[in-house]
Design a protein that fits this description.
Blueprint: H1 3-13, H2 19-38, E1 43-45, E2 49-56, E3 59-62, E4 69-72, E5 75-82, H3 84-92
Antiparallel strand pairs: 1-2, 2-5, 3-4
Length: 99
């Protein structure tokens, strides 16, 4: 599902809201989650999951074409851990991947 599809679904489920208002709400939520992660904070949405940032140490990687060693700087990356309710809901419908 894309961001625009999410906005369309939410607007359809909430006909009392205008589409541009739903778009503003979704954008504001995403912006706030992004800003919190940029500050190094944890964002927990009960029943859905938690967004955190993880530190990746500097390392020596390899150029896939040449095999030559390449220095990779340390970095901070976003990380998502699904909550129990989300995992259970996803698993209720069964594994249909590859069918």
């Amino acid at each position: 599902m894309t961001k625009s599809e999410l906005i369309d679904e939410l607007a359809a489920a909430n006909p009392h809201l205008q589409s541009r208002d739903v778009e503003l709400i979704v954008s504001t939520i995403f912006d706030e989650v992004s800003a919190a992660l940029a500050r190094g904070e944890r964002v927990e949405l009960r029943g859905f999951g938690a967004f955190t940032v993880k530190q990746r140490d500097a390392r020596t990687g390899r150029n896939p074409r040449t095999g030559e060693p390449v220095s990779v700087d340390e970095k901070v990356v976003p990380f998502f851990k699904a909550g129990k309710e989300l995992r259970e809901r996803v698993n209720q419908r069964g594994n249909t991947r590859g069918r």
